[in-house]
Design goal:
about 45% helix; about 200 residues; Rossmann fold; cytoplasm; DNA-binding transcription factor activity; alpha/beta; 2 domains; NAD; six-stranded parallel β-sheet; NAD(P)-bd_dom_sf
Length: about 200
Protein backbone atom coordinates (compact mmCIF):
# COMPACT_ATOMS: atom_id res chain seq x y z
CA UNK A 1 0.00 0.00 0.00
CA UNK A 2 2.84 2.34 0.81
CA UNK A 3 4.32 1.81 -2.66
CA UNK A 4 1.02 3.08 -4.11
CA UNK A 5 1.28 6.29 -2.09
CA UNK A 6 -1.15 5.45 0.72
CA UNK A 7 -0.48 7.00 4.13
CA UNK A 8 -3.19 5.14 6.08
CA UNK A 9 -4.28 1.50 6.16
CA UNK A 10 -7.66 0.31 7.42
CA UNK A 11 -8.47 -3.00 9.06
CA UNK A 12 -11.05 -3.88 6.39
CA UNK A 13 -8.49 -3.31 3.59
CA UNK A 14 -5.87 -5.38 5.40
CA UNK A 15 -8.41 -8.12 6.12
CA UNK A 16 -9.55 -8.27 2.49
CA UNK A 17 -5.93 -8.51 1.33
CA UNK A 18 -5.18 -11.58 3.45
CA UNK A 19 -8.62 -13.19 3.58
CA UNK A 20 -9.69 -12.52 7.17
CA UNK A 21 -12.22 -10.19 8.79
CA UNK A 22 -11.43 -6.65 9.91
CA UNK A 23 -12.38 -7.76 13.44
CA UNK A 24 -9.67 -10.45 13.33
CA UNK A 25 -7.12 -7.90 12.08
CA UNK A 26 -7.87 -5.57 15.00
CA UNK A 27 -7.83 -8.50 17.44
CA UNK A 28 -4.45 -9.72 16.17
CA UNK A 29 -2.99 -6.22 16.28
CA UNK A 30 -4.21 -5.72 19.85
CA UNK A 31 -2.18 -8.77 20.95
CA UNK A 32 0.93 -6.77 20.02
CA UNK A 33 -0.41 -3.44 21.34
CA UNK A 34 -0.78 -2.06 17.82
CA UNK A 35 -3.54 0.50 17.92
CA UNK A 36 -5.13 2.69 15.28
CA UNK A 37 -7.84 5.35 15.22
CA UNK A 38 -11.41 4.15 14.93
CA UNK A 39 -12.06 6.15 11.76
CA UNK A 40 -8.50 7.15 10.95
CA UNK A 41 -7.04 3.68 10.47
CA UNK A 42 -3.36 2.90 10.96
CA UNK A 43 -0.49 5.11 9.88
CA UNK A 44 1.38 2.89 7.40
CA UNK A 45 4.89 4.02 8.41
CA UNK A 46 4.16 3.42 12.10
CA UNK A 47 2.50 0.08 11.32
CA UNK A 48 5.45 -1.15 9.24
CA UNK A 49 7.87 -0.10 11.96
CA UNK A 50 5.92 -1.99 14.62
CA UNK A 51 5.61 -5.12 12.46
CA UNK A 52 9.34 -5.01 11.66
CA UNK A 53 10.03 -4.80 15.38
CA UNK A 54 7.79 -7.82 16.08
CA UNK A 55 9.49 -9.83 13.32
CA UNK A 56 12.93 -8.81 14.52
CA UNK A 57 13.80 -6.98 11.31
CA UNK A 58 15.45 -4.16 13.23
CA UNK A 59 18.09 -6.69 14.27
CA UNK A 60 20.59 -7.90 11.69
CA UNK A 61 20.41 -11.69 11.25
CA UNK A 62 23.81 -13.16 10.44
CA UNK A 63 23.83 -16.49 8.62
CA UNK A 64 26.45 -18.63 6.89
CA UNK A 65 26.65 -20.53 3.62
CA UNK A 66 28.14 -24.02 3.45
CA UNK A 67 29.18 -24.89 -0.10
CA UNK A 68 30.35 -22.22 -2.55
CA UNK A 69 29.19 -23.67 -5.86
CA UNK A 70 26.83 -22.08 -8.41
CA UNK A 71 23.84 -21.93 -6.05
CA UNK A 72 26.04 -20.60 -3.26
CA UNK A 73 27.43 -17.84 -5.48
CA UNK A 74 23.93 -16.86 -6.60
CA UNK A 75 22.74 -16.63 -3.00
CA UNK A 76 25.70 -14.51 -1.91
CA UNK A 77 24.99 -12.08 -4.77
CA UNK A 78 21.25 -11.94 -4.02
CA UNK A 79 20.45 -8.40 -2.83
CA UNK A 80 16.97 -9.22 -1.52
CA UNK A 81 18.41 -10.35 1.81
CA UNK A 82 19.40 -6.78 2.71
CA UNK A 83 15.82 -5.50 2.93
CA UNK A 84 15.03 -8.35 5.34
CA UNK A 85 18.06 -7.58 7.55
CA UNK A 86 19.65 -10.91 6.62
CA UNK A 87 23.39 -11.04 5.97
CA UNK A 88 25.52 -13.95 4.80
CA UNK A 89 28.63 -13.23 6.84
CA UNK A 90 30.81 -16.05 5.48
CA UNK A 91 30.81 -18.98 3.08
CA UNK A 92 32.74 -22.23 3.51
CA UNK A 93 34.09 -24.66 0.92
CA UNK A 94 36.39 -27.70 0.61
CA UNK A 95 38.08 -26.42 -2.56
CA UNK A 96 41.23 -24.40 -1.67
CA UNK A 97 41.02 -22.59 -5.04
CA UNK A 98 37.74 -20.97 -3.97
CA UNK A 99 39.05 -19.56 -0.68
CA UNK A 100 39.07 -15.75 -0.61
CA UNK A 101 39.34 -14.16 2.82
CA UNK A 102 39.27 -10.64 1.34
CA UNK A 103 35.99 -11.00 -0.56
CA UNK A 104 33.04 -8.84 0.58
CA UNK A 105 31.63 -12.12 1.89
CA UNK A 106 34.74 -14.10 2.91
CA UNK A 107 35.07 -17.61 1.48
CA UNK A 108 36.75 -19.68 4.18
CA UNK A 109 38.13 -23.24 4.42
CA UNK A 110 35.65 -25.81 5.66
CA UNK A 111 38.06 -26.63 8.51
CA UNK A 112 37.23 -23.26 10.09
CA UNK A 113 33.47 -23.82 9.95
CA UNK A 114 32.87 -25.18 13.45
CA UNK A 115 34.91 -22.51 15.25
CA UNK A 116 33.31 -19.74 13.20
CA UNK A 117 29.80 -20.88 14.17
CA UNK A 118 30.71 -21.08 17.86
CA UNK A 119 32.70 -17.81 18.02
CA UNK A 120 30.09 -15.79 16.11
CA UNK A 121 27.02 -17.45 17.67
CA UNK A 122 25.57 -18.27 14.23
CA UNK A 123 22.20 -20.04 14.40
CA UNK A 124 21.16 -20.39 10.75
CA UNK A 125 23.02 -21.91 7.80
CA UNK A 126 22.29 -22.41 4.12
CA UNK A 127 23.50 -25.81 2.90
CA UNK A 128 24.42 -25.98 -0.81
CA UNK A 129 26.84 -28.92 -0.85
CA UNK A 130 26.66 -32.05 -3.06
CA UNK A 131 24.34 -34.80 -1.80
CA UNK A 132 27.22 -37.07 -0.72
CA UNK A 133 28.50 -34.40 1.68
CA UNK A 134 25.16 -33.06 2.88
CA UNK A 135 24.41 -35.30 5.87
CA UNK A 136 27.93 -35.10 7.27
CA UNK A 137 28.06 -31.30 6.93
CA UNK A 138 24.58 -31.02 8.45
CA UNK A 139 25.72 -32.97 11.52
CA UNK A 140 28.89 -30.86 11.82
CA UNK A 141 27.04 -27.54 11.79
CA UNK A 142 24.29 -28.75 14.14
CA UNK A 143 26.87 -30.03 16.62
CA UNK A 144 28.48 -26.58 16.49
CA UNK A 145 25.22 -24.87 17.43
CA UNK A 146 23.25 -24.25 14.24
CA UNK A 147 19.49 -24.27 15.01
CA UNK A 148 18.04 -23.92 11.51
CA UNK A 149 19.14 -25.07 8.03
CA UNK A 150 17.90 -24.07 4.59
CA UNK A 151 18.84 -27.19 2.64
CA UNK A 152 19.47 -26.94 -1.11
CA UNK A 153 21.19 -30.35 -1.23
CA UNK A 154 19.14 -32.83 -3.30
CA UNK A 155 18.66 -35.33 -0.46
CA UNK A 156 16.44 -35.65 2.58
CA UNK A 157 18.51 -35.02 5.69
CA UNK A 158 18.05 -37.15 8.80
CA UNK A 159 16.17 -34.91 11.19
CA UNK A 160 17.31 -34.20 14.71
CA UNK A 161 15.45 -32.50 17.57
CA UNK A 162 17.91 -29.63 17.99
CA UNK A 163 17.68 -28.27 14.42
CA UNK A 164 14.90 -27.22 12.05
CA UNK A 165 15.31 -28.11 8.36
CA UNK A 166 13.67 -26.31 5.44
CA UNK A 167 14.26 -28.23 2.19
CA UNK A 168 14.46 -26.37 -1.11
CA UNK A 169 14.32 -28.82 -4.02
CA UNK A 170 14.27 -26.84 -7.25
CA UNK A 171 13.55 -29.91 -9.39
CA UNK A 172 10.49 -30.75 -7.26
CA UNK A 173 9.23 -27.17 -7.55
CA UNK A 174 9.55 -27.26 -11.35
CA UNK A 175 7.80 -30.65 -11.52
CA UNK A 176 5.03 -29.20 -9.37
CA UNK A 177 4.62 -26.31 -11.81
CA UNK A 178 4.38 -28.73 -14.76
CA UNK A 179 1.75 -30.72 -12.89
CA UNK A 180 -0.41 -27.66 -12.21
CA UNK A 181 0.06 -26.31 -15.75
CA UNK A 182 -1.08 -29.65 -17.21
CA UNK A 183 -3.97 -29.76 -14.73
CA UNK A 184 -5.12 -26.31 -15.90
CA UNK A 185 -4.80 -27.42 -19.55
CA UNK A 186 -6.87 -30.55 -18.86
CA UNK A 187 -9.54 -28.54 -17.05
CA UNK A 188 -9.82 -25.92 -19.79
CA UNK A 189 -9.83 -28.64 -22.46
CA UNK A 190 -12.70 -30.54 -20.80
CA UNK A 191 -14.62 -27.27 -20.32
CA UNK A 192 -14.32 -26.39 -24.00
CA UNK A 193 -15.48 -29.90 -24.95
CA UNK A 194 -18.57 -29.53 -22.77
CA UNK A 195 -19.33 -26.14 -24.30
CA UNK A 196 -19.06 -27.60 -27.81
CA UNK A 197 -21.38 -30.46 -26.88
CA UNK A 198 -23.96 -27.99 -25.55
CA UNK A 199 -23.83 -25.94 -28.74
Amino acid sequence: MKSFGFIKAYSNNLGDAIGITSVQVRKDFSLFNISGNKKGGYNIDDLLEQIDSILGKQISHNIILVGYGKIGKALINYRGFESESIKIVAAFDHNPEKIDRNASTPILPIEELKDFIINNKIEIAILTVPDLEAQRMFDVICNAGIKGVLNFAPIKLLERPDCIINDVNIADEIESLFYFINDVKDTSSSSSKKNKEKS
